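Handout for the seminar on molecular recognition.
Each group receives one record of this type.
Step one: identify the two inputs.
Step two: read the structure output and locate the region that could contact pyridoxal-5'-phosphate.
Step three: write two sentences on what you found, then compare them with the reference statements printed after the record.
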Amino acid sequence: MTATRASYRDISLYAPNRTPCPIDLSDNTNLWGVAPAVEAVLRGAATTSLTRYPSLYAERLKAAIAGYTGQPASRIVTGCGSDDVLDSAIRAFAEPGSRIAFPDPTFPMVPLFARMNGLVAVPVPLKPDYSLDVEGLLAADATIIYVCSPNNPTGNAVPPESLARLVASLRDDQALIIDEAYAEFADANALPLLADSGRVLISRTMSKAFGLAGLRIGYALGATDLVTEVEKSRGPYKVSSIAEQAAVAALEDGLAWAVERIADARAARATLMDALRDRDLNVVPSGSNFVFAPVRKGGAIATAMRARGVAIRPFEDLPQVSAGLGATGGSALRISVGPTEMIQAALAAFDEARAECE
Ligand SMILES: *Cc1c(COP(=O)(O)O)cnc(C)c1O
């Protein structure tokens, strides 16, 4: 007998390889850094306020997010990273034992949060062109449908028509979570859908485009009664006072900086996609700040690249949804974009690593 929850015993800790590496293109964070306006706020942060609790539900941050997204503060919930927002939303929307459907492959935290909250995970394979199986997700008879656009790890965005079709087909007792961690890098976002449905929650993060992964700030947008339930499930004091100040600066005085870096990332992504296609890889068209391609021996190539000072994210056992993934036995690489020197270093390391692994 132990004193812990039986259903937790075979859940493992999240454990990607996080060993430091000189050039780290493995986690899709902002490799250009953070806005000078954010650094200035952090340097000047008043230490006297550290003895006090932060605001209960980050009202100042909600106001800044309202300004950035054009949505009213009453339709916004924040959290300790969007991981926290997603976990809280799953708990708020579905009782233990209910089903959550999501595309496969997608963000690996989702099946994990499903299990942590006692939900039944229903993976629905992507179609052979990596597009979303909308009918399959709807047919899964799930209380929550989760969709990630642009999708991690494949990088492609879900066309607005597919999202609209999902929204239009939701039953009264179903919620749709659209994870837009990479929305800033895509051509379109799902915000217009919020006007059509009270059952849609769009989650966002400050960890990727805004470069604040270390401060853990996420948020979500949806109908007021939906975000209120997420806020209950999340609990108070989840965004630290320093993180809140930095995030406000990033969305206000630092916004022009972020917009420039997003343009840099989109240009770098085009360069990287072309370079990988020149190497005969089946690159998935990316709407994000990373590029995904099936490649044989992804794990070995990533290890050999790491030995050359470049970290990228390998996948070994992805579902073989496409001809490309079928040909590699489910092996693939995901490479974040960054400044030109980093992309060039990654390509040089990849060429040597692939030669070594053949
Ligand atoms: C990185 C990522 C997140 C998590 O972001 P945090 O705000 O840092 O917790 C959520 N969803 C997807 C798809 C991601 O890639």
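Reference statements: Residues 81-83, 107, 148, 152, 179, 181, 205, 207, 213, 218 surround pyridoxal-5'-phosphate (CB under 6 Å). Residues 255-278 form the longest helix (24 residues).
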